[in-house]
Design a protein that fits this description.
The complex is a heterodimer of chains A (about 180) and B (about 350). With about 180 residues, chain A is mostly helical. Helix content of chain A is about 75%, strand content about 0%. Chain A is built from seven helices and no strands. In chain A, helix 2 runs antiparallel to helix 3. Chain B is an all-alpha fold. The radius of gyration of chain B is 21 Å and the shape is globular. Chain B has one domain. The chains are: A mainly alpha (about 180), B mainly alpha (about 350). At the A-B interface, helix 2 and helix 3 of A face helix 4, helix 5, helix 6 and helix 7 of B.
């Protein structure tokens, strides 16, 4: 009973700001509303007993991705409080795409057996660590390699934009520097 | 938490309570306690900061308020700040402007929950304690960005951008420097980390191996940068940016930023004590009679003093020097510390 109440509160914390993200006319407000959604998702993970994933969610998404998103959004210079006017040419492809994604998600969600739902929190870090170093060593190293490549790529991009400083760029380099 | 539960059960009529009610009451008491400690430390540290600054610059600092070495200066300052007019700039983004100080404060208050004050006395005994602390303190970055943006002032926005960049960058060496300790302990639980350092000064993690000794200083430097204090106070450089991201804030809202800054200062010092300097264990057996929490706090205040010493001694660095130091010096050094500690553990047979 109380568990359900906690779940409902966490779900509301996730969904209400998410709706705000989509419908807010102010893009910076949308970015900041994302904070609550990410926080709510972390809460849901913690509720399901996945403490490690919950903390990682906070660390990676709130501490990293969200700040990056905010930086990007702040540099886009959308007039504050002005609602953008989009025609049918935008609404139709967006609608079709979102419906397709929704259908796919719905089919996946309903076809998977989700187990018990709320479980008591058990320490998971040690187990995750052991699995990373034994059973899942290849995926783990592979992801590390992908991240390393991405990092080197980003460093090279910044360097190139520094050399050609006189020519105006598309603005992507500003975000990263 | 167990101590607290036992205490509550002694109150007549408390036996009939369900676990949930008990849990909520305990959490509320601990949160209030943490908030009081936080407010008190901000109060004491403002006075201490002025006295230390005076001492390091061969002057007295505040001397008049309250007769004895101006001890009441902090209280007077607090009353003044509470009585100030609360100004919200006309062009500010009102909602975000109001919410930003709360978010900054929330980030540091949440992190305080995992600090182990004494054996068994920690607000949230989490298995992921250390990681949790770093995760929730990253929320302050968003708060700072929010404050800078909502102020609608170019100085505030510059300060916020610098602050966010700096805090994200220095989080990396800060967390990396703690990894050797986690390797030795085999746990992220804050209590386990302290318990692993039992038995005199030589068992403290700072003296366990040379790499940990280096890691401690890396942690200390990154900690100064993480709390935005001099010589790394780029977000608040008064000669360039007025006051950085809290330029427009007055009264109570400014007090929130102020409180968060000193709370973070103490938090970083306490984490340093917790992971490197033996937590609540006394340095020599002779000092064992002191209560563990007092030992812990005394060590923490000493670390804060060290921090203030650095702040009032060194000139401010430039932004590019700041980033150079972080990415090209501190991160490689901390990575070497992680690898070196691992090798040391294997060679000395301490690997679990």
């Amino acid at each position: 009973m109380t568990g359900d109440l906690v779940f409902v509160l966490l779900a509301l914390l996730t969904i209400v700001p998410a709706v705000w993200v989509v419908f807010s006319p102010n893009i910076v407000h949308a970015g900041f509303a994302l904070l609550f959604t990410l926080f709510g998702v972390a809460g849901l993970y913690a509720y399901m007993g996945a403490d490690y994933i919950a903390v990682t969610q906070l660390m990676v998404y709130v501490g990293g991705v969200l700040v990056l998103v905010l930086f990007t959004v702040m540099m886009t210079r959308v007039p504050q409080g002005k609602r953008a006017n989009y025609g049918l040419d935008r609404f139709v492809p967006a609608g079709v795409l979102s419906l397709a994604v929704f259908g796919l998600l719905y089919k996946t969600i309903t076809s998977v057996d989700w187990g018990a739902g709320h479980t008591e929190s058990v320490p998971t870090v040690a187990e995750i660590g052991t699995n990373f170093m034994t059973n899942y060593i290849f995926p783990f190293e592979y992801i590390s390699l992908v991240l390393l490549v991405a990092m080197i790529g980003a460093a090279i991009l910044i360097r190139e934009s520094k050399n050609t400083q006189d020519e105006p760029e598309n603005g992507d380099s500003e975000v990263q520097s | 938490m167990q101590i607290l539960t036992d205490l509550i059960l002694k109150i007549p009529g408390a036996d009939g309570m369900s676990d949930l009610v008990m849990h909520i009451i305990c959490a509320a008491i601990m949160a209030t306690l943490m908030f009081i400690v936080m407010a008190l430390c901000a109060l004491i540290f403002t006075w201490m900061e002025r006295k230390v600054a005076g001492f390091l610059q061969s002057r007295y600092g505040p001397m008049r308020t309250g007769r004895w070495h101006g001890w009441a200066q902090a209280i007077a300052d607090m009353l003044k700040i509470l009585a100030k007019e609360d100004i919200i700039p006309r062009d500010a983004d009102r909602g975000l402007y109001v919410f930003a100080p709360i978010l900054v404060m929330l980030g540091s208050l949440l992190a305080w929950a995992a600090i182990p004050w004494a054996p068994g006395f920690v607000a949230a005994d989490l298995d992921l304690g250390l990681m949790y602390i770093f995760a929730v303190s990253s929320m302050a970055v968003v708060g700072i960005l929010m404050a800078g943006w909502a102020s609608n002032n170019k100085w505030a926005l510059y300060g916020a951008a610098r602050g966010a960049a700096q805090m994200i960058s220095y989080e990396v060496p800060l967390a990396l420097a703690t990894i050797p300790v986690v390797m030795y302990t085999g746990s992220l639980n804050t209590q386990d980390i302290v318990i692993a350092q039992q038995g005199g000064m030589l068992n403290w993690f700072i003296f366990r191996d040379p790499f940990l000794f280096v890691a401690f200083f890396m942690y200390f430097i990154a900690g100064i940068a993480e709390t935005n204090r001099g010589p790394f106070d780029m977000p608040e450089t008064e000669s360039e940016l007025v006051a950085g991201y809290h330029t427009e804030y007055t009264g109570m809202r400014f007090a929130f930023f102020f409180l968060a800054e000193y709370a973070n200062l103490f938090l970083i010092a306490l984490i340093a004590v917790m992971i490197f300097l033996g937590g609540w264990w006394a340095p020599i057996p002779f000092l064992d009679f002191l209560p563990p929490a007092l030992t812990f706090i005394i060590k923490g205040v000493m670390m804060v003093f060290l921090n203030m010493w650095v702040r009032w001694t060194l000139p401010r660095v430039r932004v590019d020097q700041l980033m150079h130091l972080c990415w090209k010096v501190m991160i490689p050094v901390t990575l070497i510390c992680v690898i070196g500690s691992g090798i040391w553990m294997m060679v000395s047979g301490q690997a679990g």
